[in-house]
Amino acid sequence: MDATKEIARRRTFAIISHPDAGKTTLTEKLLLYGGAIHLAGSVKARRAARHATSDWMELEKERGISVTSSVLQFDYLGYRINLLDTPGHQDFSEDTYRTLVAADSAIMLLDNRKGVEEQTRKLFEVCKLRRIPIFTFVNKCDRAGENPLQLIDDVEKDLGIRCFPVTWPIHRGSEFLGVYDRIEGAVRLFEKGGDHGSKRAKVVEGGLDDPEVVGRLGEDVVAHVKEELELLDLAGSDFDRGDVLSGALSPTFFGSALTNFGVEPLLRHFLEDSPPPAPRESDEGIIGPDHDAFTGFVFKIQANMDPKHRDRIAFLRICSGRFEPGLQVRNTRSGDTVRLAQPQQFMARERQAVEEAWPGDVIGIHDRGALRIGDTLSSNGDLAFGGIPRFSPEHFARVMTGDPLRRKQLDTGLRQLSEEGAAQVFFEDIQAGHTPIVGAVGLLQFDVLVHRLEHEYGAKARLERMEYRHARWVEGPESDIRRVARGEGRLLVFDSKERPLILFTSEWGLRHAVDREEKLTFHAFAP
Ligand code: G4P
Asked: Where do the DSSP E strands lie in 211-263?
């Protein structure tokens, strides 16, 4: 197999969105175009399970392995696509952010009535930090939404990114008819099937002056679209692939995932303009996907909640080299040699043994506790990729022990689970003896933590929720840090590496401190 060819055809990306924007629906439709229709059904089943229950243990049973992100792999137009699932509802967690570190690009999905929402904004910040290309899909255009010009303006102002509409929606009144492709200079009119979008949408293609197109749209609609397109040409950004690749310009698409309108143009342009697996920084310099040795890093560890099956799955993003079963690799951090005997690839609920994998692919490795998030595995040498940052938690709780005689087990459990990335542990002061505080990005992480402390460490714990909602790692003179942290609705804590953070009860309090305290630097991510 030709490595150059395999690398060039890989696309590894994630969809970032706020709950209910249509991520599950869009994922299904991408799979439909990728010919993996049987999988599309299972995505839907997962959504049904999610809506049916908020009980996390039930969720875990319902969904098998994939309570946190799994990877969907499919082919389209000769490309091999790895779609990394970013949990977004009750299971929104630090894993959602970490998954973005394994992606080479992202599709930002917006509801045409709501534009940029809170969770989208947070996930966008992580993409921006990594400077990965972001493609935007404005969904639900089959029903009236915000004016597209206004929506684009809002996105640009809100996120500080420029948008280039690649497709533009064509409406007659409130009826969504199709899109104009500004790169190809062609109209794509879709026909609604009576099948609730379970099949590819039928398409009529042609230029704006094509008699069939004019006949279908009517002259008024054509004139209106021409006017809007002129406005876009005059006022909007030009298309520049360099700007797309650096994350400064977002190719933007309009459509409706539910009816399949505009999904195919999104997928096709995305595949053409998004990057193949990118080089990664390591302590031995930049490692390109064509590097001789096999390298990869662990971005997520999935613990099995079933006490009878303690095995964990570590998700490894391959950065260079070819994987084949039995490959021997070294863990740079621990120095251990690991034989990757039976790794797996994940497609919705199905696990499959991997015969071969290339840069951009993700494989799941059985792990008995030897691996940690951020570990580099390589077949040759001792290089280490830059670690995965810690993301600032939004929920906090004091950990009260249910049994003082098992305090030691509790401390061990907390330390190990925090190293593994299940939650973050903080202390109010560096000296031991204080009640530990746990922080999580999503509340589900707390349920998982309590469950695992009890079942894996025999330590019953009770969490006492705290009112803080924001946290920032803070750098600067200690006296200033302590002074600022004494304010109302604030608390000074230290992480496991003894780095100080200030917790805030309100966004306003946080903003106030960031704006006023010139001697202090506040970080939402810890390197
Ligand atoms: P999520 O994964 O981002 O949370 O969103 P999901 O796909 O579950 O979609 C959320 C709701 O939005 C669903 O409606 C879905 O049918 C609807 N939706 C998705 N894409 C479109 C679209 O292009 N147009 C319109 N009009 N609606 C769309 P629901 O009522 O919650 O579920 P269901 O009863 O339709 O299954």
From this structure: 249-254
pLDDT digits (tens, 9 = 90+) for 342-364: 666 554 344 556 788 999 999 88
Ligand 1 probe mutation, 92, 258, 260, 261, most atoms within 8 A of CB: 258
49 lines ligand 1 (CB under 6 A): no
Closest approach atom of ligand 1 to CA 255: 23
Q: Find the 476 Cα to ligand 1 centroid distance in Å.
A: 46
Ligand 1 center from residue 260 Cα (angstroms)? 12
- Examine the pLDDT at 378 and tell me if it is beyond 50: yes
Nearest CA to ligand 1 atom 30: 20
Closest alpha carbon to 138 in 26, 270, 28: 26
The reply to whether ligand 1 has any atom less than 6 angstroms from the CB of 18 is no
Q: What is the pLDDT of residue 47?
A: 52
Helix (H) / strand (E) element for 345: namely: strand 344-347
Element (H, E) at 268: helix 263-273
Mean pLDDT within 273-302: 94
Q: Which CATH superfamily is domain 395-523 in?
A: Peptide chain release factor 3, domain III (3.30.70.3280)
What is the pTM (predicted TM-score) of this model? 0.89
In Å, how far are 171, 191, 201 from 195, measured between CA atoms? Answer: 22, 11, 10
In this structure, which CATH number among 3.90.650.10, 3.50.50.60, 1.10.1040.10, 3.40.50.300 belongs to the domain 12-70+85-273? 3.40.50.300
Fold match between domain 280-378 and domain 395-523: no
Q: What is the CATH number of domain 280-378?
A: 3.40.50.300
Q: How many residues does this entry show for the chain?
A: 527
Listed by start position, the domains of the chain span 12-70+85-273, 280-378, 395-523
pLDDT tens sequence across 89-110: 777 888 889 999 999 999 999 9
Protein residue with its CA nearest to atom 4 in ligand 1: 20
